[in-house]
């Protein structure tokens, strides 16, 4: 029976990788739901704005930190990359829906 020597660094790395993967995929069900229904009414625009800004600043922070420390934390970069893709789609659909609703409201006001 082999004995595994798990250091705190290894445990931290494994925990970080698992957490980052789950954070990276947590938006997938929402993206699928929006794609399937073409409906973003239940998603707050402010939530998407805050999430987008947070992702931009955190990815920038991680990138600068990795550059300065000559490291590459792939789980974090994977997380931010997949979130950027998910957010790009959700932001696009939400903004498109908000513009459509605004146009519908304006059209009704002119009749």
Structure description:
79% of the residues lie in helices and 0% in strands. By secondary structure, the protein is mostly helical. The protein has a domain at 44-101. The longest helix has 36 residues, at 74-109. 8% of the residues are buried.
Can you describe this structure in just a few lines?
79% of the residues lie in helices and 0% in strands.
Q: What is the topological layout?
A:
Elements: H1 8-25, H2 28-37, H3 45-68, H4 74-109
Q: Distance between termini?
A: 80 Å
Contiguous low-pLDDT stretches (5 residues minimum) are none
Write down the secondary-structure element order. Answer: HHHH
User: Would you report the number of β strands?
Assistant: 0
SS summary, helix count: 4
Largest beta-sheet details: none
The residue-averaged pLDDT reads 88
Into which percentage range does the β-strand content fall? under 5%
Name a few traits of the molecule:
mainly alpha; 4 helices; 79% helix; 111 residues
